[in-house]
Structure to design on (635 residues):
């Protein structure tokens, strides 16, 4: 019996709502339907969030491929192309493999950018997706490419899922010392999950378990060679992170704190006491105040004696939208004063993360999982029991992972939904024809670009009306996301029913038919979601226009030819002067913030008459009256 992905957005309610990224990997035994789940927030203020397409191709002998640096968008060189490359859409291929990354940087002297190496981390991801079907093979290919052509980036944590396994590969170049890179890759144990966020998380590792741990032969000796590991220390005690990416204040506060947030929430869902214990145990470490108190575990397992993890795609969506709410780091200014939150209790802070006051003292803004400068995000599920074209699904969205409606994108589709496409591409090979994408980029907006519409929606959730708009957005987004999730389940069921033997990869005609159906489905749902989300922007913009809270008014608008009683000629919305909350008014009235010049005189020298006139003046200046208009009783 073919199993189908079943998700319930209600699961999302279990959790709160410079470049950097956050990743979450879920093994089959930790997911509700035995799929491998991978969630990725690609955080960058300069990237244009778009879906790239590399069509499946057979290449002629001696074909080559250009390599362009993903970060700096500069040409690096040329390498031989493979004889055959697979279809890749976004970060997934037609065989159900999905990949992504976070950058940990590591030792400055090992930054291989500008050392003559050709292979940057972005190309490594998309080349691996085009040439391999399994994560183990992707890891081996990445190693072979950097050893042959040299590495051109710095420390990276690569994530990979293929339906059966989930892997983390942490790699760093050799700088100007040597060509190539050193690395360690570990499989996420079945039943466990793993998160990483801009800090190397591999410490010591089992060097005698090739089924679950693989590594470059010189990973220990290279550290010795550059003076980062004692010559007489045992290989078994080697700590990858300590040697190549020691934890700093920022690594803990702005990287590991995001992992901590995800882990504590997951544990708390299974066992509230275990979640609280974990939260308290590692709090000083992730605050960056005690970097010697002990690292968090690489893998998170369910508490002993508790039920196993059973995550859905919706759970992963929610975890990737967390912002350190209800923790020591919570900076919304709800439980304690925080001027940075503004009157709208925003969880966000404008960059930079580290800033100085006029005395030169340094302070920090918190770095949350969901962040305003995300280029794109997705939650993927790889299901090996489904036909190849729909084996991997990416629930994909531009911008902030806490405020974005995600659309379905299968790894086997052959066209990108128009509003999400890019005629330039993250890399040149991922570009589509100009006629198949809106004319837009990271600087030039378009009303037809999903990136810009999603940004318009998200930006309404920041600043002075953050709390109000965020709550309104969730009311809009919940039903829309549930509907898309349900439609994908129904579509997959229909495909399996129509193509009973579709999982047979040797049937080319059947594979092509499924890919076309999946493409048409994603195009239709992407188009529909785009216009619905653009309408959501207009609704939310109208909600808080000019500082009011605007809602449906009474009485209703008169219908032409109908009664003139109890209705108005034109629509008159309810325009509420909601202003600020009491705490913010107290702050505005405090000494030192203009209290004297803002103060209205108390009482009146002219008695009740002055008070009566003052009240009426205030109302009429805002076109209001003390009593509502009484409608006439005859037409």
């Amino acid at each position: 019996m073919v199993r189908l992905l079943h998700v319930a957005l209600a699961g999302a309610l279990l959790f709160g709502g410079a470049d950097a990224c956050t990743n979450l990997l879920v093994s089959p035994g930790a997911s509700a339907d035995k799929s491998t789940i991978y969630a990725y927030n690609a955080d960058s203020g300069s990237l244009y969030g778009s879906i790239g397409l590399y069509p499946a191709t057979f290449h002629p002998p001696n074909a080559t491929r250009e390599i362009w640096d993903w970060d700096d968008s500069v040409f690096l060189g040329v390498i031989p192309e493979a004889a055959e490359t697979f279809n890749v859409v976004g970060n997934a291929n037609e065989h159900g493999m999905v990949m992504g990354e976070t950058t940990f940087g590591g030792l400055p002297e090992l930054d291989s950018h500008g050392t003559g190496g050709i292979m940057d981390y972005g190309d490594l991801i998309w080349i691996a997706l085009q040439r391999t079907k399994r994560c183990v093979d992707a890891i081996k290919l990445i190693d072979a490419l950097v050893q042959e052509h040299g590495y051109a980036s710095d420390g990276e944590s690569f994530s990979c899922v293929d339906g059966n396994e989930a892997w983390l590969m942490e790699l760093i170049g050799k700088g100007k010392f040597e060509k190539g890179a050193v690395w360690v890759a570990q499989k996420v144990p079945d039943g466990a999950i793993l998160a990483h966020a801009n800090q190397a998380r591999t410490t010591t590792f089992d060097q005698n378990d090739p089924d679950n741990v693989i590594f470059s032969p010189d990973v220990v000796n290279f550290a010795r060679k550059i003076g980062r590991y004692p010559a007489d220390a045992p290989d078994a005690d080697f700590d990858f992170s300590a040697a190549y990416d020691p934890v700093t204040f920022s690594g803990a506060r702005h990287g590991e704190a995001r992992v901590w947030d995800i882990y504590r929430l997951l544990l708390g869902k299974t066992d509230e006491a275990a979640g609280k214990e974990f939260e308290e145990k590692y709090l000083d470490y992730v605050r960056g105040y005690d970097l010697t108190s002990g690292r968090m575990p690489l893998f998170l397992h369910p508490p002993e004696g508790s039920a196993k993890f059973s995550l859905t795609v919706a759970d992963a969506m929610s975890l990737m939208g967390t912002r350190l709410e209800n923790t020591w780091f919570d900076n919304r200014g709800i439980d304690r004063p925080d001027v940075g939150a503004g009157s709208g209790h925003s969880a966000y802070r404008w960059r930079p993360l580290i800033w100085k006051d006029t005395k030169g003292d340094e302070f920090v803004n918190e770095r949350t999982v969901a962040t305003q400068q995300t280029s794109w995000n997705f939650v993927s599920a790889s299901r090996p029991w489904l036909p190849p074209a729909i084996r991997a699904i990416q629930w994909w969205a531009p911008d902030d992972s806490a405020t974005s409606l995600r659309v379905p994108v299968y790894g086997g589709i052959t066209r990108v939904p128009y509003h999400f496409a890019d005629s330039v591409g993250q890399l040149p090979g991922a570009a589509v024809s100009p006629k198949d994408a809106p004319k837009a980029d990271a600087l030039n907006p378009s009303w037809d670009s999903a990136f810009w519409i999603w940004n318009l929606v998200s930006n309404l959730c920041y600043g002075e009306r953050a709390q109000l708009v965020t709550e309104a957005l969730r009311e809009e987004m919940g039903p829309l996301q549930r509907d898309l999730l349900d439609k994908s389940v129904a579509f997959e069921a229909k495909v399996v029913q129509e193509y009973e033997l579709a999982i047979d990869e040797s049937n080319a005609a059947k594979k092509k038919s499924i890919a076309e159906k999946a493409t048409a489905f994603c195009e239709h749902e992407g188009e529909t979601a785009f216009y619905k989300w653009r309408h959501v922007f207009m609704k939310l913009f109208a909600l808080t226009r000019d500082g009011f809270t605007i809602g449906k008014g009474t009485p209703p608008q008169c219908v032409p030819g109908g009664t003139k009683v109890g209705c108005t000629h034109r629509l008159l919305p309810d325009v509420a002067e909601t202003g600020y909350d009491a705490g913010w008014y107290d702050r505005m009235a405090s000494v030192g913030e203009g209290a004297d010049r803002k103060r209205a005189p108390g009482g009146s020298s002219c008695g009740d008459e002055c008070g009566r006139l003052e009240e009426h003046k205030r109302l009429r200046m805002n076109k209001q009256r003390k009593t509502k208009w009484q409608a006439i009783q005859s037409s």
Q: What stands out?
A: The chain is about 30% helix and 15% strand. The mean pLDDT is 92. The radius of gyration is 28 Å. Residues 508-543 form the longest helix (36 residues).
